[in-house]
């Protein structure tokens, strides 16, 4: 099994070049400095909450921290969960509670190590308020045996009682220089030629999301040369381009066609509903439509509905219907 995992990591650059130590994380010096100060006294480390945009190192920092605290066998005492997959109270009660309730046994080999286990809860802002409330109680009851690292994109979506039980670290969007320098390093190690303008274009497309930048870089490097044309060709096959097509169909009044493509994008290609709205927002404003204030209100309304647990397929379908209505009123 480990051989398969290693092969996968070597194939995927985003895993192959994932930092293994906190000091290797790109352009988050203040955050890494704060975390490094905390881990000087591992036994007293608190629960942590990492917040910030996607692709800036939050999950990587959590994995590096787990490796530092628990050693090479850190996976044995670490539970990794993605709350966007299981966002309800059932997941909290069945998986988190059962893992947190288990004491780590003391043996001669680990007697000098920390005696707690770690739970890494990624995309916690996708959890329902009820699930977050249940998680708060588990954090209190299991504080002697477990430390939580909660990861989110939007801190405002985390209830105050959870925030108050954690030390909060805010990760910032990565600067263009640091993202491009990191991509250059990968190109050098992989023997890939590149154009400076192509790397700048990748940064422009991803808005500082390093994970997405690396994925686009790898896809663009299929011919061993990263050029503007290769990047644009790659993005033409990407999810953001598909979202742009859906938005244009809706605004032009082709609601049924846009809805069919939406279902294909979310069910076949697996794009999350939140990512769809994020890309839709970027594309809509790049179109420079009339009455942008109305579009902004519309986007905010449906983002709020998704955040409060409304049925995502119904809400995005309704969103496309509203766009179609807005587009027809401008004709």
Characterise this structure:
This protein is of the alpha/beta class and about 325 residues long. It folds into three domains: about 170 residues, 3-Layer(aba) Sandwich (Rossmann fold), CATH 3.40.50; about 60 residues, Helicase, Ruva Protein, domain 3 (Orthogonal Bundle); about 90 residues, Zinc Finger, Delta Prime, domain 3 (Up-down Bundle), CATH 1.20.272. It is about 55% helix and about 10% strand. It has 16 helices and seven strands. It has a five-stranded parallel beta sheet, with helices on both faces. The longest helix is centred in the C-terminal third of the chain and has 19 residues. The radius of gyration is 22 Å and the shape is globular. About 0% of the residues have low confidence.
Please specify the SSE layout and strand pairing.
Layout: H1 2-11, H2 13-16, H3 29-38, E1 48-51, H4 58-70, E2 78-82, H5 89-100, E3 117-122, H6 129-141, E4 146-152, H7 160-163, E5 167-170, H8 176-190, E6 193-194, H9 196-206, H10 210-220, E7 225-226, H11 228-236, H12 239-251, H13 255-268, H14 273-286, H15 292-307, H16 312-330
Q: Briefly, what is this?
A:
The chain has 331 residues and is an alpha/beta fold. Helix content is 57%, strand content 9%.
Overall average pLDDT: 83
Number of domains: 3
CATH architecture of the largest domain: 3-Layer(aba) Sandwich
CATH topology of the largest domain, by name, is: Rossmann fold
Coarse structural class = alpha/beta
Q: Proportion of β residues?
A: 5-15%
The low-pLDDT segments are 105-112
> How many separate helices?
16
- What composes the largest sheet? 5 strands, parallel
- The helix content is 55-70%
| CATH C-level name of the largest domain | Alpha Beta
């Amino acid at each position: 099994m480990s051989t398969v995992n290693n092969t996968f990591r070597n194939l995927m650059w985003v895993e192959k070049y994932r930092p293994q130590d906190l000091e290797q994380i790109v352009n988050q010096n203040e955050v890494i400095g704060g975390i490094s100060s905390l881990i000087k006294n591992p036994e007293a480390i608190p629960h942590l909450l990492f917040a910030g945009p996607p692709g800036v190192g939050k999950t990587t920092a959590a994995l590096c921290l787990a490796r530092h605290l628990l050693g090479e066998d850190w996976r044995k005492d670490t539970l990794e969960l993605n709350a966007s997959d299981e966002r309800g109270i059932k997941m909290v009660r069945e998986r988190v509670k059962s893992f947190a309730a288990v004491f780590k046994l003391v043996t001669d080999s680990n007697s000098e190590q920390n005696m707690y286990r770690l739970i890494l809860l990624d995309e916690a802002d996708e959890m329902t308020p009820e699930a977050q409330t249940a998680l708060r109680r588990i954090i209190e009851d299991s504080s002697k045996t477990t430390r939580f690292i909660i990861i989110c994109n939007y801190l405002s979506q985390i209830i105050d009682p959870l925030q108050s039980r954690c030390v909060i670290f805010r990760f910032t969007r990565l600067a263009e220089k640091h993202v491009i320098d990191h991509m250059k390093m990968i190109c050098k190690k992989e023997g890939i030629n590149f154009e400076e303008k192509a790397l700048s274009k990748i940064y422009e497309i991803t808005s500082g999301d390093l994970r997405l930048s690396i994925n686009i870089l790898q896809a663009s490097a299929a011919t061993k040369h990263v050029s503007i044309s290769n990047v644009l060709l790659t993005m033409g096959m990407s999810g953001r381009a598909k979202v742009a097509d859906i938005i244009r169909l809706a605004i032009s009044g082709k609601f049924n066609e846009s809805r069919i493509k939406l279902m294909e994008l979310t069910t076949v290609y697996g794009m999350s509903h939140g990512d769809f709205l994020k890309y839709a927002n970027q594309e809509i404003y790049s179109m420079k439509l009339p009455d942008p204030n109305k579009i902004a209100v519309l986007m905010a309304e449906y983002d709020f509905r998704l955040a409060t647990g409304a049925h995502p397929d119904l809400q995005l379908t309704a969103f496309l219907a509203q766009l179609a209505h807005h587009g027809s009123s401008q004709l």
